[in-house]
Amino acid sequence: MDVSGKTIVALATPAGRSGIGIVRLSGDGALDAAVKLTRRDRDFFAPRKATLVELRDPRDNAAIDKALVTYFKAPHSFTGEDVVEISCHGSPVLLRQVIDLCLSFGCRAAEPGEFTLRALAHGQLDLAEAEAIRDLIDAQTTTAARQAVRQLGGEMSRSLQPLKDELLNIIVVLESALEFVEDDLPESQSEEVSRSLQEIAAKTLEFADTYKAGHLIRDGLSATIVGRPNVGKSSLFNRLLGTERAIVTDIAGTTRDQLNERFTVGDIPIHLVDTAGLRETEDTVEKIGVERARGAMADADLVIVVLDAHESLTEEDREIVRSAEKQNFIIALNKIDKLPSRDIDRLASAGDPALSKFRERMVPVSAKTGEGLDDLREAIIQPFTTHDLSANSFLVTDARHYDLLMRTHAEIGESVEALSQNQSEEIVLLGLHNALRYLGEITGETTTEDMLTRIFSTFCIGK
Ligand SMILES: Nc1nc2c(ncn2[C@@H]2O[C@H](COP(=O)(O)OP(=O)(O)OP(=O)(O)O)[C@@H](O)[C@H]2O)c(=O)[nH]1
Ligand SMILES: [Mg+2]
């Protein structure tokens, strides 16, 4: 990614009609573009002051819009470069004109995340903070947004700094031993180093462990509804979403293609999948649906097996439960409104003692009346919420950060091992330098161009 050079331009607000739409420019030519669009002098635009001004097409002097133009003079801008923000009326047609004119002035269309990348390159924020901006924009729940804001405020760097400092202290001790001491490190000192390293490793692991909760908050989980035809999968899917998204009929084999929707339970985003009823079939379309259902089941974090509580268990039901057993699964005993009694223990073992061992996983529900739906929602997230998500702690939410913390932990572990085996300081140091580098990669002190390209490709354009 070329971070220096040309002035970039992009629409910073979503495409489509809206109250206002903002075109953002960053680079040496940003102010010139504003000058050309408004036919005003450079001095007209006082830094950090929004000015209402007419935009005109320099080719025919036709008025384009009346807009608010704000100039942020380098380095006091988001990117650290000259930035101009033009708040126009939110018409896609006029915004296109403004962007096209900027391109004709020699600006270049920004790549995804390029404004943030430039901010990073100019030291306006560190990599973890840059990623936090992406996560904040992508956040699906309030909790996820709040975690992202904390990271944006530099909390990741602050959490890592003590670990880095302690690691560096030990590296200094070992490096000087290497340089000045003829013999090996004295045993007492070696033990002390080992103890400190184990403490750092434990803290790293403790921090990495928050990823389970952090990942859940940010990315949520996927739950796939499976079961034989007509047990009420699509009805439950609709109930959970609160809309009539899926077609429901009393004809077995109604759902063919799988349906994907998102909703949240207790601030956890859930990716819910409705599937075709599982059965042997000769129908070509249904057959593909059944194959897809099996695929979606295998990919899910949680499988929701739906059984018809009103009917006795069939061999197909048993087979579905058996295949779900390999994963996280719960059983929704649907259509309880058709039963005179709500005795779940009787239901659980209904005609099949094999099922009673799953008593804990069973939730009696009625997609028709809504009974038991709260219990079902609770059961969906229950296997995943080991951490107290409401706790006020800072969590690791990004897989990249988690991976680097685990690698740090492994490297320190190897150094401790090398130390206990009386291996040379060089070997011990090798692991510690790697560990320090991994921690540095989280905040971007030690990142390669390649990595940056990969990370920033996940950003949206205009940010
Ligand atoms: N009484 C009662 N009927 C239900 C309930 N849930 C679903 N039904 C009915 O059962 C029939 C099948 O419902 P669907 O939701 O289409 O079942 P499905 O499992 O998605 O079926 P396929 O898509 O064919 O696999 C419909 O007539 C629903 O109205 C329930 O809780 N109680
Ligand atoms: Mg269906």
How would the blueprint of this fold be written?
Elements lengths: L7 E4 L6 E9 L3 H9 L12 E6 L6 E10 L10 E8 L1 H13 L3 E2 L4 H8 L5 H12 L3 H11 L2 H26 L6 H23 L1 H9 L1 E6 L6 H9 L17 E7 L2 E7 L9 H16 L2 E7 L6 H10 L4 E6 L9 H5 L4 H4 L5 E3 L8 H9 L17 H22 L4 H19 L5 H8 L7
Parallel strand pairs: 1-6, 7-9, 7-10, 10-11, 11-12
Antiparallel strand pairs: 1-2, 2-5, 3-4, 4-5, 8-9
Bound molecules: guanosine-5'-triphosphate and magnesium ion.
Q: List SSEs in N-to-C order.
A: EEHEEEHEHHHHHHEHEEHEHEHHEHHHH
Structural class: alpha/beta
Which band does the percent of strand residues land in?
A: 15-25%
Radius of gyration: 29 Å
| CATH fold category name of the largest domain | Rossmann fold
- Sequence of strands across the biggest β-sheet: 3-4-5-2-1-6
Determine the mean pLDDT: 91
Text of the CATH class of the largest domain: Alpha Beta
Shape: flat
CATH superfamily of the largest domain: P-loop containing nucleotide triphosphate hydrolases
Number of domains: 3
Give a written overview of the molecule.
It is a single chain. The chain is an alpha/beta fold and 463 residues long. It has 3 domains: 8-126, Gyrase A, domain 2; 133-210 and 395-444, tRNA modification GTPase MnmE domain 2 (Four Helix Bundle (Hemerythrin (Met), subunit A)); 220-384, P-loop containing nucleotide triphosphate hydrolases (Rossmann fold), CATH 3.40.50. Helices cover 46% and strands 16% of the residues. The chain has 17 helices and 12 strands. It has helices at 30-38, 92-104, 114-121, 127-138, 142-152, 155-180, 187-209, 211-219, 233-241, 284-299, 315-324, 344-348, 353-356, 373-381, 399-420, 425-443, 449-456, and strands spanning 8-11, 18-26, 51-56, 63-72, 83-90, 108-109, 221-226, 259-265, 268-274, 302-308, 329-334, 362-364. The strands form 2 sheets. The chain has a 6-stranded mixed sheet with strand order 3-4-5-2-1-6, with helices on one face. Strands 8-9-7-10-11-12 form a 6-stranded mixed sheet, sandwiched between helices. A hairpin with a 6-residue loop joins strand 1 and strand 2 (18-26). The radius of gyration is 29 Å and the shape is flat. The two termini are 15 Å apart. It binds guanosine-5'-triphosphate and magnesium ion. Guanosine-5'-triphosphate binds at residues 227, 229-235, 248-250, 252-255, 276-277, 334-335, 337-338, 366-368.
